[in-house]
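User: Could you go from structure to sequence for me? I need the amino acid at each position, not a summary. Structure tokens:
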């Protein structure tokens, strides 16, 4: 029995879809295994009790060592980076009311809804060649209370220049604008080390999902030097999710203790896949940016909505419509899957495009 065809209008259609000879370039979930050591002796009763709303002290202390001048009280452990972003924006609303938030477009598809659910108003600066256009940024930043940046980026795979990040630090500090820096891919950079953006109003968002392949544990965190943000997040969290799952926090702490070679080894695998998928799509005639981090490519193609439907229903290939990221005329592919599957998926895409070369221009 075949798949019943319905028009696909959201990434929600594909979440959790697997098997049946499907090749999925959709999910941003690492397929590489997590560290083995995190699974030892987890049948401890303490790990199934309520915990601190802020998060387990040992995990917060370990995190503080990764940020110069930080201490455990500067962190809130959250249910993934998504809850962290939500809590931050709702805290800003509690303190400042309905203010404007600058988003970089294309953006991760959940950003505008999270901002709007918090009672804030999103406004946009368009990326130039997949990176922040600092001239347009400077114009827009004067009229907002906060800006959300994401480097390495989902969906572009681009990494912001260090000079741009330093300029953002300077501009926002002068204006008193919050910078929410979503750094969930900070350990997956191929070209340089991550630059940690700093400042009194900088709020760093991160998680253990991408670095350690722990997506399902839903453990992320907020790091902020502004105690009002931390207090606001805790005051909200106590009435919503309460503590983040204690077992997940213990496994995240153990993951932090693995040798650095674990992360660098996995990054080398991501880079190999990046090179293959970028080369394969380029050889087909796609116009796309070469990713410097994360595990996404965002090639141009006409009729992107139709392409998403056709590839899934006729060729069992999942890709995401760029329109979902406010990048119409593109499709997003995640290369978080084994190289043989990437090769097979590209082969199916090539067969689909046979005779449709004009769609790539």
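Assistant: Here is the amino acid at each position, in order:
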């Amino acid at each position: 029995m075949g798949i019943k065809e319905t028009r696909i209008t959201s990434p929600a259609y594909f979440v959790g879809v697997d098997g049946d000879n499907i090749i999925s370039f959709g999910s941003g979930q690492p397929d590489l295994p997590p560290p083995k050591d995190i699974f030892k002796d987890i049948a401890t009763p303490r790990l199934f009790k309520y915990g601190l709303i802020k998060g387990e002290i040992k995990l917060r202390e370990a995190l503080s060592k990764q940020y110069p001048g930080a201490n455990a009280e500067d962190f809130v452990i959250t249910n993934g980076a998504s809850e962290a972003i939500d809590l931050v924006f709702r805290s800003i609303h509690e303190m400042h009311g309905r203010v404007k938030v600058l988003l970089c477009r294309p953006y991760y598809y959940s950003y505008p809804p999270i901002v709007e659910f918090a009672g804030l108003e999103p406004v946009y600066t368009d990326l130039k060649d997949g990176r922040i256009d600092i001239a347009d940024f400077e114009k827009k930043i004067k009229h907002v209370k906060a800006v959300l940046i994401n480097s390495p980026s989902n969906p572009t795979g681009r990494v912001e220049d260090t000079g741009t990040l330093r300029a953002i630090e300077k501009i926002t500090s002068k204006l008193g604008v919050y910078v929410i820096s979503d750094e969930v891919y900070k350990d997956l950079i191929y070209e340089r080390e991550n630059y940690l953006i700093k400042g009194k109003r900088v709020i760093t968002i991160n998680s253990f999902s991408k670095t350690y392949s722990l997506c399902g544990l839903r453990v992320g965190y907020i790091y902020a030097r502004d105690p009002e943000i931390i207090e606001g997040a805790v005051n909200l969290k106590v009435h919503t999710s309460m503590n983040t799952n204690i077992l997940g926090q213990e496994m995240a702490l153990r993951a932090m203790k693995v040798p650095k070679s674990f992360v660098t080894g996995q990054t080398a695998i991501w880079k190999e896949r990046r090179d293959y998928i970028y080369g394969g799509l380029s050889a087909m005639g796609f116009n796309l940016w070469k990713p410097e981090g994360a595990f996404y490519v965002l090639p141009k193609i006409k009729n992107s909505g139709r392409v998403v439907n056709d590839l899934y229903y006729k060729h069992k290939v999942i890709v995401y419509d760029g329109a979902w990221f406010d990048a119409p005329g593109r499709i997003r592919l995640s290369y978080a899957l084994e190289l043989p599957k990437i090769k097979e998926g590209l082969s199916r895409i090539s067969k689909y495009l046979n005779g449709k070369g004009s769609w790539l221009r």
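One structural detail worth keeping in mind: The chain has a mean pLDDT of 93.
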